[in-house]
Design brief:
- This protein is mainly α and 210 residues long.
- It has one domain: Multidrug efflux transporter AcrB transmembrane domain (Multidrug efflux transporter AcrB transmembrane fold, Up-down Bundle).
- The chain has helices at 13-25, 39-70, 73-97, 103-131, 136-166, 173-209.
- Helix 5 (136-166) runs antiparallel to helix 6.
- It starts with 12 loop residues before the first helix and ends with a helix.
Length: 210
């Protein structure tokens, strides 16, 4: 066995390993020789698989809770659409910032799924209460007005707390920068996702069912 080690400085592990894999693939190795990538890279891949499984499991549990609380697939579809917008914003933010989809960013993505789902569930609960005494359009307007302030307060508080990490300010911030970017992008998208995208979907689904 020949162990080859290296120290990474000023770059992320994902991009370095991609270049290392391409370089090794271009080398003609003797028959019977195999290459194994171990160390921090193998631990990272194991953590990514575990976090991916947790993310899928959490998403399924959220769907089951929604079906149990609202007893309607309309609520599940509407919340899934809002969550999809937030997840897309997270992936877009990571891409534009040049951040890798690593353990930290996956943790942020999982938090965004939970926060957006919770916000959408509160919106749906308030909407169901308002719909009992108002027409559908007025119920949506009242619900949006009542949920605007809590969503804004949550987003502004998170932005102020995570801005230094997202900008890479401070010692050790580079490790948590993808986490901060993921959460910030997800929370920024949660506001239009819940207040602007969720209501029309509810109206369309309600008309389709009616």
């Amino acid at each position: 066995m020949v162990a080859v080690t290296a120290r990474i400085s000023g770059r992320d592990l994902g991009s370095v390993m991609s270049e290392a894999r391409r370089a090794v693939a271009e080398v003609s190795l003797p028959p019977g020789t195999r290459v194994e990538y171990a160390g921090l890279y193998r631990e990272q891949q194991s953590s990514l698989r575990s976090l991916g499984a947790v993310l899928v499991g959490a998403t399924l549990l959220v769907g089951l809770v929604l079906l149990f609380l609202h007893e309607s697939t309309r609520a599940l579809v509407a919340v899934a659409a809002a969550v999809a917008v937030s997840v897309s914003a997270v992936l877009l933010g990571l891409y534009l910032s040049g951040s890798e989809l690593n353990v930290a960013s996956l943790m942020g993505l999982r938090m965004v799924v939970g926060i957006t789902s919770e916000t959408a569930v509160f919106f749906l609960s308030h909407w169901r209460e308002a719909r009992a005494r108002l027409d559908p359009s007025a119920a949506l307007l009242e619900t949006g007005a009542s949920r605007l302030r809590p969503i804004l307060m949550t987003g502004i508080a998170a932005a102020l707390a995570l801005a230094p990490l997202a900008l890479g300010i401070g010692t050790g911030s580079a490790m948590l920068q993808p986490l901060a970017i993921a959460i910030l992008c997800g929370l920024v998208a949660a506001l239009p996702a819940v207040l602007l995208i969720l209501p029309p979907i509810l109206v369309v689904l309600q008309r389709g069912q009616g």
